[in-house]
Amino acid sequence: MNIVMLAIYFILTVSGVILMKVGATNPLTISFKDGFNFSVGWVSFLGYTIYIISFFLWTRIVLKFDLSYIVPICTGIVQVLTMTAAVFILKEQFKPMSLIGVALIIIGIVFLNIKR
User: Fold this and answer.
1) Domain coordinates of the chain in residue numbers?
2) pLDDT of 65 strictly over 60
């Protein structure tokens, strides 16, 4: 069950961020009485909603695992998945230094999982 919860968290977090970015090109403007305007696209709004749901799931994950173990692992995995999604979905550039960064993250995750 914990693995399923982590997988759902990764999917929601990465898809939320990607949707926020994709929807930023077609904003909807919401105006308030005091002159405050907030522009957000429908796709971005969906991304925000998904990301907020992932945050609530994150709070459950933090309660179930050791904090010093789960935070670096999940953060690293989310970073790698987000960069991968940005390359394939958003057609962003994948630079050589990015590959080195991904390798270091993966090595760090492996070291965190080595049982002493």
Assistant:
1) 2-113
2) yes
28 band by pLDDT with thresholds 50, 70 and 90: low
Q: CB within 8 A of 96, min separation 6: which ones?
A: none
User: Helices marked H in 23-115 — which ranges?
Assistant: 42-64, 67-88, 96-113
| C-beta separation of 47 from 23 below 8 A | yes
Per-residue pLDDT, averaged over 85-108, amounts to: 90
**Dist CA 45 CA 53 (whole Å):** 12
pTM: 0.82
HSE (side-chain half, CA atoms, 13 Å) at 10: 21
- Cα–Cα distance between 112 and 103 in angstroms, integer? 14
